[in-house]
Amino acid sequence: MSATNITTLLAKTKDFSLEETLEFLANEYKDKVVFSTSFGQEDQVITDFIAKNNIAITIFTLDTGRLFQETYDVFHRTLKKYKKQIEVYFPEATAVESLLKEKGPNSFYDSVENRKECCFIRKVVPLRKALAGNAVWITGLRAEQSENRNDLELFEYDANFEIIKFNPLLKWSLQEVEAYLQEHSVPQNALHKKGFVSIGCAPCTRAILPDEDIRAGRWWWESSHKECGLHSAKKE
């Protein structure tokens, strides 16, 4: 995949609305466009666009086995509202069994390396399976979510997963996301009203304080770049 492909996509879609861009991608890469949702606020916006407009894009989620009940609740409400199938990918059972046998259920608290190992088993490996054979991966990433995401582009090539990545909400603010969800009565995770902004696995997520960074509630016990490997820096 060359920079030319990304430039071409940007040129073809520069005057398109979000809905029009999603429809264009679904037609341009028929049956090879997927959207990953963790049922966060941004993901729910994109799900609403895809589902209510009946756009032929596959929606999938990663069930790590350590999610909040509130996440399963919004998952269920989303299915009931939109009547659109959401594919689910789990970590390999043998890998999880080996991890817990060797290091116990909470090894991720012990070191950044252990935490990344758990993320790799529960999230990265299943994601590779979900993305395999597809051409475009749609995400709910926003630039203001963290300084690590400030240099993201609307379209970019993810060399880690060898796929085009489309970040349609890249320039949206949190206020714009919340306003859209309210206006369109989109199901939301109940934890958002309790100070949770970025929601991942239950043992690794806490509510944030008013003056804290959006990602402060993720892996709060460490001072790493707060990424799990799904959206790592691009390879050269």
Automatic annotation (TrEMBL):
<dbReference type="GO" id="GO:0070814">
    <property type="term" value="P:hydrogen sulfide biosynthetic process"/>
</dbReference>
<dbReference type="GO" id="GO:0051539">
    <property type="term" value="F:4 iron, 4 sulfur cluster binding"/>
</dbReference>
<feature type="binding site">
    <location>
        <position position="118"/>
    </location>
    <ligand>
        <name>[4Fe-4S] cluster</name>
    </ligand>
</feature>
<feature type="domain" description="Phosphoadenosine phosphosulphate reductase">
    <location>
        <begin position="33"/>
        <end position="207"/>
    </location>
</feature>
<feature type="binding site">
    <location>
        <position position="201"/>
    </location>
    <ligand>
        <name>[4Fe-4S] cluster</name>
    </ligand>
</feature>
<keyword id="KW-0408">Iron</keyword>
<dbReference type="InterPro" id="IPR004511">
    <property type="entry name" value="PAPS/APS_Rdtase"/>
</dbReference>
<feature type="active site" description="Nucleophile; cysteine thiosulfonate intermediate">
    <location>
        <position position="228"/>
    </location>
</feature>
<comment type="similarity">
    <text>Belongs to the PAPS reductase family. CysH subfamily.</text>
</comment>
<dbReference type="InterPro" id="IPR011798">
    <property type="entry name" value="APS_reductase"/>
</dbReference>
<keyword id="KW-0411">Iron-sulfur</keyword>
<keyword id="KW-0479">Metal-binding</keyword>
<dbReference type="Pfam" id="PF01507">
    <property type="entry name" value="PAPS_reduct"/>
</dbReference>
<comment type="function">
    <text>Catalyzes the formation of sulfite from adenosine 5'-phosphosulfate (APS) using thioredoxin as an electron donor.</text>
</comment>
<dbReference type="GO" id="GO:0005737">
    <property type="term" value="C:cytoplasm"/>
</dbReference>
<dbReference type="GO" id="GO:0019344">
    <property type="term" value="P:cysteine biosynthetic process"/>
</dbReference>
<dbReference type="GO" id="GO:0019379">
    <property type="term" value="P:sulfate assimilation, phosphoadenylyl sulfate reduction by phosphoadenylyl-sulfate reductase (thioredoxin)"/>
</dbReference>
<dbReference type="InterPro" id="IPR002500">
    <property type="entry name" value="PAPS_reduct_dom"/>
</dbReference>
<dbReference type="InterPro" id="IPR014729">
    <property type="entry name" value="Rossmann-like_a/b/a_fold"/>
</dbReference>
<keyword id="KW-0560">Oxidoreductase</keyword>
<feature type="binding site">
    <location>
        <position position="204"/>
    </location>
    <ligand>
        <name>[4Fe-4S] cluster</name>
    </ligand>
</feature>
<comment type="pathway">
    <text>Sulfur metabolism; hydrogen sulfide biosynthesis; sulfite from sulfate.</text>
</comment>
<dbReference type="GO" id="GO:0043866">
    <property type="term" value="F:adenylyl-sulfate reductase (thioredoxin) activity"/>
</dbReference>
<feature type="binding site">
    <location>
        <position position="119"/>
    </location>
    <ligand>
        <name>[4Fe-4S] cluster</name>
    </ligand>
</feature>
<dbReference type="GO" id="GO:0004604">
    <property type="term" value="F:phosphoadenylyl-sulfate reductase (thioredoxin) activity"/>
</dbReference>
<dbReference type="GO" id="GO:0046872">
    <property type="term" value="F:metal ion binding"/>
</dbReference>
<keyword id="KW-0963">Cytoplasm</keyword>
<protein>
    <recommendedName>
        <fullName>Adenosine 5'-phosphosulfate reductase</fullName>
        <ecNumber>1.8.4.10</ecNumber>
    </recommendedName>
</protein>
